[in-house]
Write a structure and sequence with these properties.
This protein is α/β, with parallel strands linked by helices. It contains 15 helices and 11 strands. The strands form 2 sheets. It has a 7-stranded parallel sheet, with helices on both faces. Bound molecules: NADPH dihydro-nicotinamide-adenine-dinucleotide phosphate and magnesium ion (MG). Magnesium ion binds next to helix 7.
Amino acid sequence: MKPKRISILGATGSIGTSTLSVLEQTNEFDIFALTAHKRAKELGLLCERYRPRYAVLGSGDAARDLAMTLAAKGIATEVLVGEEGLKRVASHSEVSHVMAAIVGGGGLAPTFAAAESGKTVLLANKEALVMAGSIFMSAIAASGAQLLPVDSEHNAIFQCLGQTAAVGADVSRILLTGSGGPFLQTPLADLAQVTPEDACRHPNWDMGRKISVDSATMMNKGLELIEASWLFNVPSDKIEFLIHPQSIVHSMVEFIDGSVVAQLGQPDMRTPIAHTLAFPDRQASGVERLDFSRLAELSFQSPDYERFPLLTLAREVAEGPLSQSVVLNAANEVAVAAFLNAGLPYLQIAPTIQKVVHQAEPLELLTIDDVLAYDQTARDLTNNLLATYD
Ligand code: NDP
Ligand code: MG
């Protein structure tokens, strides 16, 4: 059997680090490449520890510095640069698996390169699928790549469907659960004052800052609606949002006979990561087991659409053309970055995205280059709108 060789895109992030921790539980994989964007020092430490064939960094200067540091320590890792470097390690003929764990639209080109070259693609980078939907799924089908969902809800749905992405006529609905984030109970009047630190303090999950804000606004669940509809080739109106504050049930599938199948586990991404790494087998993940005798409560409620208006917007977009999904994602990335780094008030995030989505002209997108160009247009539109705020 061919050895399993993995490139981890976004190795310094939350998912990247959890992936490396799961890989320590198995001898099945060679680590072929580790990539980061800016955190060169952290990537250097990972190279010392895991000795990958390649590392990739965002800038040429940082890559040269890292190459020199590694060479001085006798480490043979070759350091590549930027998107070309990412695409190379994602599509390299010796690689069997690619963990797509870059955050945001920056992950699209390399994740698509992995899809086009027939890899087993472990998909955490939901933004890539939201942006490229039909184009991405066609590339997977054409190359014979295998796409395995890492996102916990989608991984749960995949397991509930019986380890397949096929949704047949026997499925009546998919229940996409979400915790409701840190502001589920916050009085609406107090949301005006919340800070990036408040928004990133998720009650159950420890994640990167962008997805933490997405969880607070529930845009994350909106992106996941679009992600699920592509992954499982299912119309978005068959997918329902369900708030489940404890994050123990990771999603459910209801069949026409009334059976509901759920997947449960600790809120720890090492479980879905281990599931995709070992698929179709199973492996240990290092995650603590669920102790049902100590679970006080599993509760469920419908979302409050006044508190989470982006859920309504995402559903509207999910039913529209692909270009609207590109705009939704781009406007969200720009607005969230402005909230995290430039003082945009929390309550301006949703109206900013709504305005840009309603302003943008739908356009037919046929290639990844079309998507990337339109993504840039949408980012420019959002930045122009932000520049009009005082
Ligand atoms: P992090 O912010 O923790 O990590 C992001 C990684 O991507 C880092 O390695 C970062 O490098 C790298 N990166 C950032 N921007 C670029 C870019 N433009 N080009 C190349 N590399 C880049 O994010 P998470 O791990 O939290 O999330 C990763 C993806 O997984 C997201 O799409 C998220 O939605 C998804 N996801 C995450 C979950 C979680 O629990 N964290 C759960 C489900 C899905 P550097 O460190 O140098 O900045
Ligand atoms: Mg998720």
